[in-house]
């Protein structure tokens, strides 16, 4: 009991110190309410002070709440001060460009970042309104900025927000110009953040220069140039931004490229931080695109496209008999890569260790360079180490980079345009995207992928499952002996299992409290019978899912 009292006293003292330094009256009131609820509110208070948010796969990301373990004005002020100090330590010259989406708090966090930058004597350029993440990534290069900040939580739940950092050419180098940070920059920024003293002593300047719409127009112009201006344009598209910020930019890009304006899901067209019509604002989640496919069916669309809320990801659905089928990220990735190859685009094609092995097979057969990286576009855009120019990269989680010279990150706008270009070209020939997928399957075999995803409340459960698979690695998959067991520790918490016809990659998610197992089975096509091969592959992947669940102790 004494220990509990001591812990509670220490928590109370931490909270009081935080209150003394918190610049936001609303956050202070929120934290005082938690303090007033003690001792019953002790678990909540302990969670808020469990530790500071740290720079991870996507910079900062967490729930909107008072305290160091949340996204709030105090945490953002500290992060901005640390970032600006680190940029100065590195000798980085030039402005900081800042973008934001329409989530709760995003604009205030962006403006505070700008105030911290100008207070330190660095010019700050603020995007003119809530805009897609790819526009910010483009702006970093287009404006010659030293770095960029994007305030967004991407496809996380409504109660979250986040803070991504991009570097310009001076500090990011040729491969990292306009790309998200990688080690050691993330550790350096994190150390600088922890060195920030009392927030009351962080000088604040004006909220920077608000950029005009000419920047957005420049992005749209370059995006439209990604597709062939002479190609077919007869295509009816249904589209949803999922209450995010993609609609205005995507429709402008489609119009500039000569495509008919996509039909919008009416009650998802405008930005809304509450995401009222979806349980989870991620097009991969069950039910998230129900309204989209309903619109596509009702309007006789040829193609249905969804962006996630910050429009850096792109989901695609196609007619499948009387219904609609969502294509997997690996299927869209293969379609886009094949399309670029057929257009004669040469250079490096890259994906991640958790994506399908189909791209590897395509590149091998067509004599094109290929590379695999760890998950995340910060690694994909650096694929090959600069030995070959990157021309296409994708990850299975609906992220595609079809024009690295335009945006050195995943870009759901240019991906949507390129899918539309492919679909319109096939339509002009009386064919569809699924026909092209069948052609690829006939040539390279059916590469059936799936995912076993386990969401947890306690991150220790993930550590336990990773320890279990390492200590009790199965000797076979689907009755075939393992040909490879690869453990990427200490560099990455990833285990890869492979046979001659199957592959499993197991890793914790970098952005959510999940363990993910990525499953793949390759099934040859006999006598041109693609449907039969698909059926065999689906059965095999289902069995593989069961085997891996058992191996993880589920």
UniProtKB/TrEMBL annotation:
The keyword Magnesium applies. Residues 472-530 form the Alpha-D-phosphohexomutase C-terminal domain. One of its GO terms (molecular function) is phosphopentomutase activity. PROSITE patterns: PGM_PMM. Keywords: Isomerase, Magnesium, Metal-binding, Phosphoprotein. It comes from the Bacteria. Coiled coil: none annotated. Residues 54-168, 218-321, 329-442 form the Alpha-D-phosphohexomutase alpha/beta/alpha domain. One of its GO terms (biological process) is carbohydrate metabolic process. Gene3D superfamilies: Alpha-D-Glucose-1,6-Bisphosphate, subunit A, domain 3, Alpha-D-phosphohexomutase, C-terminal domain. Its cofactor is Mg(2+). Belongs to the phosphohexose mutase family. This is Phosphomannomutase.
């Amino acid at each position: 009991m004494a220990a509990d009292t001591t812990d509670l006293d220490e928590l109370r003292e931490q909270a009081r110190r935080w209150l003394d330094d918190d610049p936001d009256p609303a956050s202070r009131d929120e934290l005082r309410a938690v303090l007033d609820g003690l001792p019953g509110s002790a678990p909540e208070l302990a969670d808020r002070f469990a530790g500071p948010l740290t720079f991870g796969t996507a910079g900062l990301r967490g729930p909107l709440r008072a305290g160091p373990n949340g996204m709030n004005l105090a945490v953002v002020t500290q992060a901005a001060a640390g970032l600006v100090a680190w940029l100065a330590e590195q000798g980085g010259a030039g402005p900081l460009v800042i973008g934001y989406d329409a989530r709760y708090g995003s604009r205030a966090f962006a403006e505070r970042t700008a105030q911290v930058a100008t207070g330190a004597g660095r010019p700050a350029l603020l995007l003119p309104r809530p805009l897609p993440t790819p526009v910010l990534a483009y702006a970093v290069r287009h404006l010659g900025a030293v770095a960029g900040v994007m305030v967004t939580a991407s496809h996380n739940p409504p109660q979250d927000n986040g803070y991504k950092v991009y570097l310009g050419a001076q500090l990011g180098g040729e491969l990292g110009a306009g790309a998200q940070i990688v080690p050691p920059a993330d550790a350096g920024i994190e150390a600088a953040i922890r060195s920030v003293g009392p927030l009351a002593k962080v000088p604040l300047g004006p909220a920077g220069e608000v950029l005009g719409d000419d920047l957005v127009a420049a992005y749209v112009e370059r995006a439209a140039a990604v597709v062939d201006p002479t190609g077919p344009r007869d295509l009816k598209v249904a589209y949803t931004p999922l209450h995010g910020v993609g609609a205005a930019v995507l429709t402008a890009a489609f119009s500039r490229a000569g495509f008919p304006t996509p039909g919008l899901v009416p009650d998802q067209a405008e930005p809304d931080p509450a995401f009222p019509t979806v349980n989870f604002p991620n097009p991969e989640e069950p039910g998230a695109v129900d309204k989209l496919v309903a619109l596509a069916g009702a309007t006789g669309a040829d193609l249905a496209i969804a962006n996630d809320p910050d429009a850096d990801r792109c989901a695609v659905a196609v007619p499948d008999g009387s219904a609609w089928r969502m294509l997997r990220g690996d299927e869209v990735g293969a379609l886009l890569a094949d399309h670029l190859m057929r257009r004669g685009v040469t250079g490096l094609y890259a994906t991640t260790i958790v994506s399908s092995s189909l791209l590897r097979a395509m590149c091998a057969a067509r004599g094109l360079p290929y590379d695999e990286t760890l998950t995340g576009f910060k690694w994909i855009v650096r694929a090959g180490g600069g030995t070959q120019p990157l021309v296409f990269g994708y990850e299975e989680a609906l992220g595609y980079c079809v024009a690295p010279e335009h945006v050195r990150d995943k870009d759901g706008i240019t991906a949507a345009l390129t899918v539309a270009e492919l679909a319109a070209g096939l339509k002009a020939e009386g064919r569809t995207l699924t026909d092209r997928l069948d052609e690829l399957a006939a040539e390279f075999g059916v590469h059936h992928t799936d995912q076993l995803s386990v969401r947890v409340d306690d991150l220790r459960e993930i550590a336990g499952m990773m320890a279990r698979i390492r200590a009790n690695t199965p000797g076979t998959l689907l009755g075939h002996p393992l040909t490879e067991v690869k453990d990427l520790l200490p560099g990455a918490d990833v285990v890869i299992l492979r046979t001659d016809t199957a592959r499993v990659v197991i890793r914790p998610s970098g952005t959510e409290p999940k363990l993910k197992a990525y499953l793949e089975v390759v099934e040859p096509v006999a006598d041109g019978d693609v449907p039969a091969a698909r059926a065999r592959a689906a059965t095999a992947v289902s069995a593989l899912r069961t085997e891996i669940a058992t191996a993880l102790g589920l």
